[in-house]
Design goal:
This protein is of the alpha/beta class. The chain has helices at 43-50, 73-78, 96-103, 112-121, 123-127, 138-150, 168-183, 195-201, 219-223, 226-233, and strands spanning 2-13, 17-28, 32-36, 58-63, 66-67, 81-84, 156-160, 188-191, 204-209, 212-218. The chain has a six-stranded mixed sheet, with helices on both faces. Strands 2-1-4-5 form a four-stranded antiparallel sheet, covered by helices on one side.
Length: 236
């Protein structure tokens, strides 16, 4: 059963820039679904459209059995859909702990158990809980952005370029955590420039080019696809 179903979505910037051109995709319960494509293909636009930060001009978006297209982003987020944006967007003048608290702003229950889960996934955040977010390294800020999203107990987690600009050892850890989060029961829609790593952890994948889905298959099949290899995996 799909927790997210996007059908024939068109999104424009203004009247002239047709960013998404009839995009359709699904994320099933328990899945990691990878969306790959070059810069400017429309990947971030799609996540923003699903999250309510942009309104689709045409098409439908169903999440958890209900239509959400056209709804305000705060309404969508309250229903358990969390987005970790490109560039992390943490609060640099708040401490690590305060950033994590912000991820749970809609909750009125005890935060302790979920804080401990985040600190278990990212031990460095526990050590730096009183440190200002803006003083963290890029990798630590990415961990904080993911931890903040998890504090909302998401039923669907969307990640936009989580490995961008990070050292290889940190990238490896980020992907290990993505798998751990998924195994704990959270489906994930993953946008990632590192197509090989994304497809290795995903069950299925889509290829987006100039606003259109041009390929959709199992992750294993996409890894073996000559077109994908030549365009995104660096295989001649």
């Amino acid at each position: 059963m799909a927790i997210l179903s996007v059908r024939d979505v068109h999104t424009f910037y203004g009247k002239k820039i047709h960013a998404l051109k009839g995009v359709s995709l699904e994320v099933g319960a328990g899945e990691i679904v990878a969306l790959i494509g070059n810069n400017g293909a429309g990947k971030t636009t799609l996540l923003k459209t699903v999250a309510g930060l942009l309104k689709p001009d045409k098409g439908t978006i169903d999440y958890d059995g209900a239509a959400i297209h056209g709804q305000a982003s705060c309404t969508i987020m309250k229903r358990g859909l969390s987005l970790v944006p490109e560039g992390r967007k943490i609060f640099p003048r708040l401490t690590v702990f305060e950033n994590l608290e912000m991820g749970a702003y809609k909750r009125n229950d005890e935060l302790g158990p979920d804080l401990e889960k985040v600190y278990a996934l990212f031990p460095v955040l526990g050590k730096r809980r009183t440190q200002l977010g803006g003083t963290l390294s890029g990798g630590e800020q990415q961990m904080l952005a993911m931890g903040r999203a998890l504090m909302g107990r998401p039923r669907l987690l969307m990640l936009d370029e989580p490995s961008m600009g990070l050292a290889p050892v940190i990238v490896d850890r980020i992907f290990e955590v993505i798998v751990e989060i998924n195994k704990a029961g959270t489906p994930i829609l993953l946008i990632e420039q590192n197509a090989r790593k994304a497809l290795k952890v995903a069950s299925r994948g889509y290829v987006l080019e100039t606003g259109e889905i041009v390929l959709a298959d199992t992750a294993a099949a996409l890894l073996g696809n000559t077109r994908v290899q030549n365009a995104y995996l660096g295989v001649a």
